[in-house]
Amino acid sequence: MATEQRGLRGKLKKVVLAYSGGLDTSVIVPWLRENYGCEVVCFTADVGQGIKELEGLEEKAKASGACQLVVKDLQEEFVSDYIFPCLRAGAIYERKYLLGTSMARPVIAKAMVDVAKQVGADAVAHGCTGKGNDQVRFELTFFALDPKLHVVVPWREWDITGREDAIEYAKKHNVPVPVTKKSIYSRDGNLWHLSHEGDILEDPAKEPKKDMYMLTVDPEDAPNEPEYLEIGIVSGLPVSVNGKELSPASLLKELNQIGGKHGIGRVDMVENRLVGMKSRGVYETPGGTILYAAALELESLTLDRETIQVKDSLALKYAELVYAGRWFDPLRESLDAFMKNITKTTTGSVTLKLYKGSVTVTSRSSPFSLYRQDISSFESGDIYDQADAAGFIRLYGLPMRVRAMLEKGM
After folding, report:
1. Per the residue annotation, which of 20, 24, 64, 336 is the catalytic one?
2. Pair 233, 364: CB distance under 8 Å
3. 3-state class of 41 per DSSP?
4. Each residue of 147-178: b (16+ CB within 10 Å) or e?
5. Residue 364 catalytic?
6. Is 186 tagged catalytic?
7. Which of 20, 102, 134, 326 is catalytic?
8. Domain map of the chain by residue range?
């Protein structure tokens, strides 16, 4: 890839850069102009990372040499078209990870492709390193949506090896260096979650420091009284909180606030990155944890045993595809069609009890419930005759009886 990229030098006219305003992307702007002789359009997506990260970006971008900055609010699209489908599918990577960063990258990359068309750019660029998953997620989206676009990845070809090199390069090219205090952690935040990596977390044996968390209070410090929430769901997708209908992004924001107050949604895990190495990360997903608990519980009423088993098995593949950046892969889209169809009757409400880091289901109801009290009751009923169980057990256990007879010489 590096050789291919260098072959583009002097041939590109305009590049759209995924821009955060941090040190790395601030340095990439003059580096692209110096090495590729092209105009640079900076692009920033608002996926709910917080207003502070968006302040002063246009001035920073232009001071770094960009010809313009494009900012798009993708919050509603992010939740409705990316987060909610994963929720409906029950997609969880390696038993714990609710795919916060994995879902955000394709919505950002898709918007970059759209901006590239609008401004007449012939290339896109990102500041991901060669060790992480995000490089794959960005580039697979570029390939799927516009294979004609060239992709430039500075980290694969420049001589900058660390923060000090980047600061030196910035000073040399009169680029304003961000004055914010460098965090000891590598963080990624959006409307769904906040991730933490680096520093002591690189040792799986060490407990995270209490002051590392930013979205959730320590469960020990959470309120001493539980809080009850009712989540309304229609066809597998959440629509209301405590009877109040909300837009997807507004609903998630409210649950993040409530869940964070009760210390909900902390996950500490060692995961397998797509590139082969293991990494340890800590995730805060307060609203998402609440929604997963509610959606899963409602399915216990609306889906039969065989359907749940098949759905759960396909959810694993769905999560793998999303984690690997294959959002626009036909297989993921086909799995999504299955999930949408199979949950069309997953409509109802679930009441949850939040208390010191835990989420407990207290009630669930659905107009499409397969649960029948007249059948499940221990009292006698007309629909289920307990005497029928004898014949069923004889037939169901026939293979076991035959095997036992064989072993005993009968």
Report:
1. 24
2. no
3. strand
4. eebbbbbbbbbbebeeeeebbebbeebebeeb
5. no
6. yes
7. 134
8. 14-173, 186-302+345-365
Please write the tens of the pLDDT for every residue from 24-54. 999 999 999 999 999 999 999 999 998 777 8
3-state secondary structure 233-256: EECCEEEEECCEECCHHHHHHHHH
Place of tokens 């307060």: 286
Q: Write down how long the chain is.
A: 410
60, 66, 67, 70 alpha-carbon torsion, rounded to 10°? -70
Q: What contacts 400, CB < 8 A, 6 or more positions away?
A: none
Please say whether the beta carbons of 171 and 165 come within 8 A. Answer: no
Q: Are 69 and 58 in contact (CB under 8 A)?
A: yes
What does the pLDDT look like over 240-284, one tens digit per residue?
Answer: 999 999 999 999 999 999 999 999 999 999 999 998 999 999 999
Query: Catalytic: which of 186, 235, 247, 334?
Result: 186
- Catalytic residue flag (residue 105): yes
Q: Are 169 and 31 in contact (CB under 8 A)?
A: yes
Distance separating the N- and C-terminal Cα atoms of the chain: 69
**HEC per residue, 290-341:** HHHHHHHHHHHHHCCHHHHHHHHHHHHHHHHHHHCCCCCCHHHHHHHHHHHH
CATH of region 14-173, choose from 3.30.70.890, 3.30.420.240, 3.40.50.620, 3.40.50.1820: 3.40.50.620
Query: What is the C-alpha separation between 95 and 269, in angstroms, rounded?
Result: 9
**Host H or E run for residue 231:** strand 227-234
Of 33, 105, 266, 332, which residue is the catalytic one?
A: 105
Q: How far apart are CA 300 and CA 293, in angstroms?
A: 11
Range name among 61-70, 126-135, 142-151, 289-298 with the lowest pLDDT average:
126-135
